[in-house]
Amino acid sequence: MDQSNILNNDLAMAILRDAAEKLKALGVHCIVSPLSLPQGVSVSLHAGTSAVVSTAADVASERGGEYAHAVETNKQFSAMVANALADQAIMPDYIAAMGRENNTN
Fold it and tell me: Does 84 or 46 have the greater pLDDT score?
């Protein structure tokens, strides 16, 4: 199985399709949407209370993809990705600290 492209990961794609079908059965509007970025291919499950909401999320994602590829913004996008990754790295410690702080009050 080719793991370099998420769309070729049959098990992952089956899980996403299954999740979308289960959400749709509950009346949730869903779109499973692939996106090619300079960093690689991703796939998102956009879920919302209406077709407008899930479609708006999909369009926003596509616009972000355009931003990632555009010559005038691709370096800024890469920096934003790096900052988000750094935030994710410290977030568990921050959440734990906030939990300790909130439990002592």
Answer: 46
